[in-house]
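User: Predict structure, ligand iron/sulfur cluster.
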Amino acid sequence: MTLCFNGNDFKYEMENVARLFFPLRRFSYIYGGELPEKDFLAFIRREVSEGGELEVRIQDENFAETAISFVKQGPQYENRCEMEFARMLYRLLQKDTGITPKWGVLTGIRPVKRLQIDMESGKSRQEAMAEMTEGCLVSEEKAHLAMQICEIQKEILADSKPNDFSLYVSIPYCPSRCSYCSFVSHSIDHPKAKKLLPDYLDSLVKEIDFTSKIYRELGLRLRSVYIGGGTPTVLTAEQLRQVTDAVRTYFDPSPELEYTIEAGRADTITAEKLQVIKDAGANRISINPQTFEDSVLQAVGRRHTANQVVECYRLARTFGFEAINMDLIAGLPTDTLEGFCHSLQKAVELAPENITVHTLSVKRAADLFSQMNGSEDYQAVQAMVDETARVMEKAGYLPYYLYRQKNTLGNLENVGYAKPGFYGRYNVYIMEEVQSILAVGAGGVSKVVKPGSIDRVFNYKYPYEYLSRFSDILARKEQLKELLKGGLADGNRPERTV
Ligand code: SF4
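Assistant: Predicted complex:
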């Protein structure tokens, strides 16, 4: 599909809008010149010198229409033109395809942050909502969802301090690879991965030790610990204890601190490992069914049944964790609206404190990408997400964090729901980028949040690189220390950027 530009270069935004309607298509671009005779999707023309005329012309298989608008020169002229073009293109493609993406032309991944910024800059609740619905064509329902989350997050973030941080520990191993996964995670069955694992854990402990020195030296305040991956419970109980002992020895998390360990897949959970998690002082775990339909679990390469998830959940309940989260995914291959509603109902019946509902994101890295032809039933996925909001509200769960990813089916969102008071603070910190994160392990990304900007320090993605270049990892931690020092010197709470 070709996008043609004349008198402007709004490629990035226009491609994002076009992708809302054609998420899996490849785009090409033509700049300058006149309108080609055929084989294009949209012609986007700006007449800068004569009255600010903007033109968007669509020519798809069975659809051709042109829209004209005018934007006068003045403050923020480029931004105003870009937004007007986005709205024009959106409306024409909406007519062309019959699809109405509910987040309008808002293509950023953090809609809630946008509201927070607007209100912090002095806009009223109504003005911020109108900016979303009228300015960005977001549906009333989604704008309301974002505002509800924004208000809940205000409470969670009320006592944030500039020296706050969370610790993230990465275990990039899984029992097998799910077909929709785009994380760097290694199947533990692979002989090379298995062989590296003991060395990986030894180095991880060294990195935890090294990082704790930064925390003490700079007088930072630890707000939460999150051990994720991958699937941390793919480790043996003894290996898991090696990691949790290191966190305890070097960071000494207090019993009140939010401490989460992802138990992820039911085929990795045992009573012995749950005991290790409990002994570590972790108070939250995640047991992720993704779906309660056995045929769908099989289709996406998860080697456990829905019943196993229920058994694990019941077992975990006997350990008295404060909160258990369950992840579900809307739009999994072979799933149906009926199957998804059954999964949702089953999760609600089990009554975990948190239920997180993701919309399937098909990134190029996932095996699944090559099997898709772009003809998935977006309306069905939309119905799944709508049903989620209805069922969650009825069951007394509140939405408390939200983010979007690129290439998400129907351009829909991922939402964390919680019973009141059981919000997972780490999820808010990481998704809204309001707190520094010190990450250890392969694939970990540390973030230093400071006024007006965020600096990122990356660890190597793969365990073999992480091991062979471990001295670089420690050198990068020194760099991280300097960035943190700089952030503390800048003081005060970070300004937000969308
Ligand atoms: S369990 Fe999660 S991290 Fe592991 S392969 Fe499946 S989706 Fe990826």
